[in-house]
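Limitations
The structure tokens in this dataset are predictions for the assembled complex, not deposited experimental models. Users should treat interface geometry with appropriate caution, especially where small molecules or nucleic acid strands are included. An illustrative entry is reproduced here so readers can see what is and is not provided.
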Amino acid sequence: MTEVRLFRGSQRVAAPSPLDRGLAYGDGLFETLRAHRGELPWWDRHWARLRRGAAQLGIALPDERQALAEARQLLDGADAVLKLILSRGEGGRGYAPPPQPVSAWSLSRHALPPSPPPEGLSLRWCELRLGMQPALAGLKHCNRLEQVLARAEWDDPGLHEGLLRNLDEDLIGATAANVFLLQGDAWLTPPVDRSGVAGVCRQALMELAEVRVRRLNADDLLHADAVFLCNAVRGILPVARLGERHWAPHPAIAGLRHRLGATHPAFVPSQD
Amino acid sequence: MTEVRLFRGSQRVAAPSPLDRGLAYGDGLFETLRAHRGELPWWDRHWARLRRGAAQLGIALPDERQALAEARQLLDGADAVLKLILSRGEGGRGYAPPPQPVSAWSLSRHALPPSPPPEGLSLRWCELRLGMQPALAGLKHCNRLEQVLARAEWDDPGLHEGLLRNLDEDLIGATAANVFLLQGDAWLTPPVDRSGVAGVCRQALMELAEVRVRRLNADDLLHADAVFLCNAVRGILPVARLGERHWAPHPAIAGLRHRLGATHPAFVPSQD
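Predicted assembly:
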């Protein structure tokens, strides 16, 4: 049973409002955080992204100290995943928000996902092509039907993630992760200014290593010397296979995982 | 106070689930219906669109007879707007839905909007450009941040709607209405296969008159002999002004309004 705490402004409430604009329009933002022994090592990064998104969408941010204190209470020392959803709050029938909307937000605690297979992930290409929307790209907003449709394309448990291209055939990432390629000794990752999400782990890695942000396509991926996915819950996830293309474990990925693990024990790979 | 009825599958419930995928991802569809003396003249059209959307997204549809009976009870003979939201229901943390999701749906009753000004609407261009997504275009789905952002661009009550173009500069419609242009004696409306919503009133008008579906741009609009917006709540809304461009009342619009009003008294313009 997932534990959830709900708030309207600073007040704890028992249930979401049926008139919440999250339900009506996906009018909100979310963050998915890794909790390690009840602590949230990347809280500041997640909160900064939430703050940027809330400013861009014009949604009022909850009090950060309250949110963090509630999160810690909910986690109660556990290794877990914490999800935060922030919506614009109640609205009427139309797209225009009420003059003084009161944000609604929730915190929920979830079990950690299973460890990735030690040999690396098996990927597939998704048929769905992401649209481009510069006004929303990069944000972790709650308009996620593209990801829902893409994730519904397969149910083979032997395939761990699906790679997404946009309508221009640019490689963007996976349904719930960013993607990094190694070309020679250069790390590359796609821009997220037209499609995709500016992942928190992506950002952390760009501070740990020299990473070039460059438009990439399927060919770049197939010719890469090594490939990994990453997200804030699972850290770095080496890729072993995409269709007929196989990648052997690569020391550059192991090195980057090691450096990431050195920043916080939450991100030490379980097989190390 | 808006009256709302909530359901999980066929069961009435008191509140939305905090784990509803509508809140998490906008993973749902909606319909906004005009009610006239408690009846819903376009119920069949709305339900057909909802059924198509639900099939495309893989969301289970509620029982139609139950939904209609509940809607009629809620309306209780009133002239009103009825909003129906259908979400995929509760989910866990990821994009993949649970194996047997139980849809959540709600009905809410709202006041009719004020009558449009008798001289016609004043419009503006929105800065935001709609993205293109053939996998979702046409559907009245709950991923509506583009419309929320576009509607937030103005708060001048003298401007009644904002016109939207997509990233290719194609004219698509208004934030909450489709658009029709008159060129000579030909009615034109844009396709909705890449951006936009396949409006119920748009469809009804295409059955009442000869309408050509054609890609249109800002120039086509400015050179049109007459322009109207339409949606299922307000019917045909003649446009009087867009910036410096003015349109006089046009007999072709009056004729089409008359034909639409003849299909049901709900759509007789109040000034007739």
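Some entries come with short summary sentences. For this one: The first helix of chain B runs from residue 21 to 25.
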